[in-house]
Amino acid sequence: MPVTSEQAHWFQQSFLQMADNIAVAIRGKDDVIALALTCLLSEGHLLVEDNPGTGKTVLAKAIANTVQGTHSRIQFTPDLLPSDLTGVNIYDQRSQKFEFHKGPVFATIVLADEVNRASPKTQAALLEVMEEGTVTVDGVKHEVGKPFMVVATQNPIEQAGTYRLPEAQLDRFLMKVSVGYPDHEVAVELLAQAANRDRAAAVTPAISAQAVTQMAQFANETFVDPAILSYISHLATASRSHPHVRLGISMRGSLSFVRAAKTWAVAHGREYVTPDDIKQLALPIMGHRLILSAEAQFAGATVEDVVDSLLADIPAPQLRGI
Question: What global pTM score does this model have?
Answer without folding.
Answer: 0.90
